[in-house]
């Protein structure tokens, strides 16, 4: 039997489903960072707002990277629905702590897809995700460094203003 | 035409020369590309069977399925939905695009 299905698609459908889930997660992250940028703007943390606008763009780029991979492999990328975006934060520390939590979730999800792709023998998906694995190391490290800087600076007196100014060091 | 998989009510066939698939849904047979088959899979696997057993979520126990860019419309009852899920799941395994032996979440 001629394998016309394999000729049209080069990854497993299970990988495609997981990557569509990841598209949704990246879109949610992008929207969440946009909400954080909005909070920062409203509360006078203008440098942090710039940082989150940039993060939102980056997450969308990640989403598009996966979307295009699915197109290239003959899969069916699904445009994600994004709901339940939190706009309420108690402080700038809360914003960055939530960011780290979010990044850890994304990392776990990427690792899970890598493991599944390995199980399925889907080498293309596994290799494609190499870049994301290293990107997540960088993302987590950035937020951890910012949280360390916040701990050292402290939030008393002009601390909050100093924190916001320091965030500029992490905007490339 | 080569039969890929036959479930209780439906069957999936492959036409190599046309590079197309045919899905026999009883009332009619529809021709599909792999993209359309992937779209069908997404729609079918997204159907919540739980809702068929909850009068508030699905009062009549039917699903309306629009296929091939709204070219075809099917109304399926609970048993037919279960059977179509089975066909899709095993059909993709038979095509070599899936290694799963149990339902996957979409």
From TrEMBL, chain A:
UniProt-listed CDD domains: Nonheme_Ferritin
Main location: cytoplasm
Keywords of this entry: Cytoplasm, Iron, Iron storage, Metal-binding, Oxidoreductase
An annotated GO BP: iron ion transport
Keyword Ligase in annotation: no
Protein residues bound to Fe cation: 26, 59, 62, 103, 136
InterPro entries given in the database record: Ferritin, Ferritin-like, Ferritin-like_diiron, Ferritin-like_SF, Ferritin_DPS_dom, Ferritin_prok
Catalytic activity entry: 4 Fe(2+) + O2 + 6 H2O = 4 iron(III) oxide-hydroxide + 12 H(+)
Molecular function per GO: ferric iron binding; ferrous iron binding; identical protein binding; oxidoreductase activity
Subcellular location: Cytoplasm
EC number: 1.16.3.2
Domain of life: Bacteria
Keyword Ribosomal protein tagged: no
Chain ranges of the Ferritin-like diiron domain: 9-154
GO CC annotation, single: cytoplasm
Similarity section: Belongs to the ferritin family. Prokaryotic subfamily.
Role played: May alleviate iron toxicity in the presence of oxygen. Iron-storage protein.
Name of the protein in question: Ferritin
UniProtKB/TrEMBL annotation, chain B:
Top-level division of the source organism's lineage: Bacteria
This protein's name: Uncharacterized protein
Species of origin: Flagellimonas pelagia
